Amino acid sequence: MATTAIEQTPAHSVEATGLWSWITTVDHKRIGILYGATAFLFFLLGGIEALVIRLQLAQPNSTLVSPDTYNQLFTMHGTTMIFLGVMPLSAMYFNFLIPLQLGARDVAFPRLNAFSYWVFLLGGLLINVSWLFGAAPNGGWFGYANLTTKQFSPGMNIDFWTVGLQILGVASLAAAVNFFVTTVNLRAPGMKMMQMPMFVWMSFITQILLLLSFPIITVALVLLMIDRTFGTHFFVPSGGGDPILWQHLFWLFGHPEVYILILPSFGIVSEILPVFSRKPLFGYAAMVFSGVFIAFVGFGVWAHHMFATGMGPFADAFFSLATMIIAIPTGVKIFNWIGTMWGGRIEFKTAMLFAIGFLGMFIMGGLSGVMHASPPADLQQTDTYFIVAHFHYVLFGGAIFALTGGAYYWWPKMFGRMLDESLGKVHFWLMMIGFNLTFFPMHILGLNGMPRRVYTYSEESNFKLLNQLETLGSLILAVSFLVFMYNIWKTWRIKATAPADPWNGATLEWSIPSPPQVFNFPALPQVSTRDALWEMKRAAGGSVPEPQRVSGKGIHMPNPSFYPLVAAIGVTVTLGGFIGGSHLPVHIAGVAILLFGVYSWAFEPA
Amino acid sequence: MHASATHAGDHAHEHPTWQTYTKIALILFALTALEVWSYDIVHRHSPAALAVALEPIVVEVLLLLSAVKFALVAMFYMHLKSDGKLLASIFSFSLLLAAVIVVGLMIIFSYLYHVHPTLNPLK
Amino acid sequence: MADTAHAHADDHHYTATGIDNRKLAIWTFIGSECMFFASLIGTYLVYKGRDVSGPMPHSTWLLKGVEQEQMLEIPLVTFGTALLLFSSFFVVLALNGAQRGNRKQLLGWLCATIFCGMFFVGMQVFEFTHFAHRGMGYTTNLFSSTFYTLTGFHGTHVTIGLIWLLSVLAVALRGKLPPEKSLNLEMAALYWHFVDVVWIVIFPVVYLIR
Questions:
Q1: pLDDT tens digit sequence for A578-605
Q2: Which CATH number does the domain housing residue C139 bear?
Q3: A248 pLDDT exceeds 50?
Q4: Using the beta-carbon criterion (under 8 Å), do A240 and C142 form an inter-chain contact?
Q5: Residue A8 falls within a domain, yes or no?
Q6: Quick check: C182 and C98 in contact, CB under 8 A?
Q7: How far is C112 from chain A (nearest CA, A)?
Q8: What is the pTM of this model?
Q9: Which terminal residue of chain B has fewer beta carbons within 10 Å of its beta carbon, N or C?
Q10: Number of structural domains, chain C?
């Protein structure tokens, strides 16, 4: 295998531009931007799917879309938002920030990093190509067997789903290995684990969750794919199979997955709140240990998604108790965030508004979550809009608010431009109002009996008014995103002149120019405390000078490479050969491309 | 290729020797033979006295033997004994979680299929 | 220590733990793979004994009314198991040779490892085809499906390991595996040991425990 760090040739001393340079990039900052842009586009797609859902539900007995199309819409909305939206948006931050916050020049395996991005892009495109066949996945984002077996889902829809998710799983696993090694091994000299920025800690725990939970869904998907392709009966009752096994395997992954979705956002909020409260994060150690506890115990609560399947009283009690216990470390975090702001001098920048909004909305989502943790209560709530309300409060009110706040916060560092604060505030308030108008009434609708995943409802149900309010809310949400995109476009046109440290940040990324140079740091920093940059400023008498751009002569940076993309194509083609049945020539072609990509990568001239 | 930083750790600890590796190989072989022999005793019920004694605990015996083999390969061939805590922790934690998942699934399904079969809609 | 650490930080082999990035990466990947095999083994165990008809691992069964012997053939697999165990031993010797710059030791034992691995895969292929002839297809019953899937995935991992070891052998034959590059073999060896260790679990669980 070739080494990762290679002599910098003169051609790389100025950052390359042009399409080819982006296709062959192994620079974590560029890969982060690729993740972010791609994820944002998928997010908009998922948002459009949601808008169509809301338009369909605005009227009783509506025929705007057919029931089958509706099934595809909510399946793709969920799958897209989770796997193509929130996760890669988090990956944008992992990529851009982790090396910078650790004081490193790049991740441990830059080409593997690029590979992860390309696999993600190709997987996301593959799963959406299904729309062109009129066969988008339609079995829900959780694909319950045996609805998803060949007998009840004879088309290609579920094949796109199982194959697409397996491809995306490869991307996530590769990235998780990469960031795990980076965090453990590439910390700046002197930086102990308990001195890392909280975003890095939460991301680190997320990588561990990814590594341990994705293999489980891989097995579940493989077994389902084998049932559909080769006629086995893993989940087919007539052959002795048990659909409940699918549910257990899926949720063994699925519950850690929701912590994968939210922990990075916890980290982002833990970065923003201290800076705009001008106080260090309250209770650093408690934040670390509560994160570890949540992740670990999160492996023991999966069957709280299955209270209605008749597991028996012991299982119900066990999972109920474990789920309620997780509320404790979560509560610790919430109090610590409040404690961070308490007594601080709050600056209500847009990023801070989103972080505070996160706090409020996540608390609400957490409260409804604890309500579901009681099996008797959940028997009423499960499969109703009450659940839909819960997870949108934690995933939108939680993750999306935090990820958006992170965008306003780190935009200057990534692009050298500040987003407009006034437009930002308009964005925030529209989003806050639109979000609550869309999702709060769902609590009421759910308790009044409106089921999930139904394409319409009757006039007599009296669901109409609240549904209309929700649809109005979703339109306001859409407008808020238009404001955001306008903000991006408007500020893009000015020259990139943002300062290195517009917010008086605490962490190392603010100690280098905006945007950073290819090699990140002219000299790798030495760290001995938390909030390394605040400490440096304190030691220098209150502030440090604006960092200048310097020549990168003598700094070793990895060469760009085309082979990660080739290998990614190989993976996609190999697995894609399972759509609509197993096609041996396609598998063979895919493996050939993969082997070519991998060997070229391994033996690339240093 | 290795900088002094990475090599220092290797030479500070003793490496297992040729002889150690060979001994481990022979032990592994012997343990495997014991496993198969246990199976054979119970399967053919011969010698009868041994079979009667072994049968109630044969599952535990087999699992114990394989656990010992597992540990030997991990500690000596994979070098975990001399390599330090971080790598051993990564492996141990994953194994622990893996065992919890397997045991958890077995308990849940055993309950579903045997203790309370009426709860199982598939019966 | 701080000064030397600073001077070394830009040394492209600097790591905060002293463990090479790639070695840490292999162990991290191995940790993840534990969960993969745990899920497969869990599935096997959940469905164990749930068949009402079809091939049985440890008891006789009826094929079209004719009584058949138990499907699993212990002597053959025991032989394969022993081979795989010895291959772990051989690769350790090969690595030892690589680390000490002893080319003959490296090449000889690496070949021995690969031979043993190939025999193991060959044994499995033979076993699968033999089972198929005796009436156990992939979809015949739950035992057949879970058996082939679990051992098949393991066999696939062995095959990938063999391809990896063969690649390292090719590099070594061209003289490009000096002691400084022995990590390349060490990574393949760790993966190989893991594959062996998974079999150490599968063998009793599938073949020996009734």
A1: 999 999 999 999 999 999 999 999 999 7
A2: 1.20.120.80
A3: yes
A4: yes
A5: no
A6: yes
A7: 23
A8: 0.94
A9: C
A10: 1
